[in-house]
Amino acid sequence: MPMFDFVCTSCQHAFEALVRGSAQPACPACSSTAIEKQLSLPAIKTSSTHGQAMAAAKRRDKAQGQERVHAQRQYELSHDD
Ligand SMILES: [Zn+2]
Question: What's the CA-to-centroid distance between 2 and ligand 1, angstroms?
């Protein structure tokens, strides 16, 4: 049974799946069938790097969001009296 590497285009989750005939596997993380089959190692490396970049961007956005909340809280505290 052939084993293929896939990357989910919805959540960027990379996974391996057995492919039976023309059946399209679904992403184990989000159940999406919007997935891309990875045909070569360079492609896997590229999408893996892309996934890490996405994760880094999400962490950065989250940090900035917390920074904004913190600034707002400081403003409220300093104007409490
Ligand atoms: Zn997914």
Answer: 21
Per-residue pLDDT of the chain (81 residues; tens, 9 = 90+): 678 899 999 999 999 998 887 778 999 999 999 999 987 655 555 556 677 777 777 887 777 777 777 888 888 888 777
Identify the three-state secondary structure at position 6.
strand
How many angstroms is it from 46 CA to the middle of ligand 1? 17
Verdict on whether the full-model pTM lies above 0.90? no
Q: How far is the CA of 72 from the centre of ligand 1 (A)?
A: 35
Q: Name the 3-class secondary structure at 77.
A: helix
